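Predicting structure from sequence has reshaped protein science. With that in mind, we have picked out one protein's residues alongside their backbone shape tokens:
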Amino acid sequence: MGFRKDFLWGGATAANQCEGGYQEGGRGLANVDVIPTGSERRAIITGKRKMTSFEEGYYYPAQEGIDMYHQFKSDIALFGEMGFKTYRLSIAWSRIFPQGDELEPNEAGLQFYEDLFKECHKYGIEPLVTITHFDCPMHLIIKYGGWRNREMIVFYERLCRVLFNRYKGLVKYWLTFNEINMILHAPFLGAGIYFEEGENEEQVKYQAAHHELVASALATKIAHEVDPNNQVGCMLAAASYYPYSCNPADVWEGKNKDRGNYFFIDVQSRGAYPAYALKRLEREGIHLEMSEEDQALLKQHTVDFISFSYYASRVATADESLLAKTAGNLFPTVKNPYLEASEWGWQIDPLGLRITMNDLYDRYQKPLFIVENGLGAVDTPNEQGEIIDDYRIDYLAAHIGAMRDAVELDGVDLLGYTSWGCIDLVSAGTGEMKKRYGFIYVDRDNQGNGTLKRSKKKSFDWYKKVIATNGEDLSRS
């Protein structure tokens, strides 16, 4: 059996982590540009420390990224050499609408992505486009307060109409918001929100989330109207929570943690706020401004498929004395004693991917698409300049094997798989370059030094073989 014949193998990037060219082609300033490396990065990402422009003494890695703005043709040629069937990328909103609230788009930005999509098709690569991947024009944050303001729906709708009409026939697969649940964990990164002292932060985050959910439904509606062939997905930072023990209190805590993430996808896939979420909001005194028109839009325009990122499983406990935490995509959780961890403390759990896939498919009964998965590691060239990244091959082979089991043995409907950071790029969490995920090495360090020269790692040819055999041959040799 194995994967479907038209399985979409590929890789994934985000504009703000690879494009650079932040001042070129009429592009405006975005939230992702003004997040520096260093000790204050997390405070800025979470909206605790306000930074609205570049400040002295900081390094801002998104300004140049890996310069894909100028090098996309040669990069896509490398993706084509690997045999990619799809390439997941994102639109920099401020390339299309530099301020965000203009009535007319920026032609130079539109042309850039048109050229990029045509380059993909030259190699038989289907673009998978994230409309908003942690990207918001800075003007919309300063003037309107980001997604806390309902007017953002109007600006997002305008962006979507332009994209769907301009790229009709060039792009078929769309994602509305990247890791939409990240708004709860990184509100400035996810929604352009920073908080004022004494503000009810939960109220702000959930109202902003509602605005994004309405905007997502509106985008789905427009996409289907412009081109019935369009397929629109939501996107979740996923990983099932394991209870730390069989203590019922731990099991219940795990269920509640899962619900905290599923809430968004419940709305986008099922078309209504689930009862548990409404009760929780009520208990916490959070009142959402939500019209009948909003509810009708959510109900009538659910997504076509569920896409998600998976890096590590999570553990939940009701025992507050268990303080040993592990890292993981801005989701610190209790350490799982049965798992090993990456250099950044992310616990490695291939079976957890199969478990997560089954949980999502059981819950939604819609096709799944894994759009992020990978191992962040330090890659050190040997004396010959080669990078023998067997550790990455082992990680990916184990996860693809678990993914295959979910399809073959469990009957999960899976559209495709795009490994994260198929070419080395800037880490969203830390801003580092040394935390590498790619099959392609980029000569760049954490301070922005380096030639930006691209070179193939051992995993490049390995992934090429995986794609050529449709996931049947996962061996190292």
Summary: The CA atoms of residues 128 and 353 lie 21 Å apart.
